Amino acid sequence: xxxxxxxxxALAAVMLLVPSAFAEETGAATAGGKxxxxxxxxxxxxxxxxGGALGQGRIAxxxxxxxxxxxxxxxxxxxxxxxxxxxxxxxxxxxxxxIFMKI
Length: 103
What we know:
Layout: H1 2-22, H2 30-69, H3 74-102
């Protein structure tokens, strides 16, 4: 239960920082917005990496279990596993590209 509480606190902190990062500023105060944008981008990439790592772990675990139960289907399971891993990794890379476009 404590783990979910920490996740919710971190999510609340990010949600409090994001509006100020996207606020429109003019003049000399613009440099402060870049810093907050970088912090929000860091949190966003961390969340994307965390979610991607969890997904990839579950995909690999299920594939290993399936290959252990049915060794004859190992080639088909391996191909499906690699395709799933590619899709999960692509989401993390898209997040990185979007972050670099926003900064």
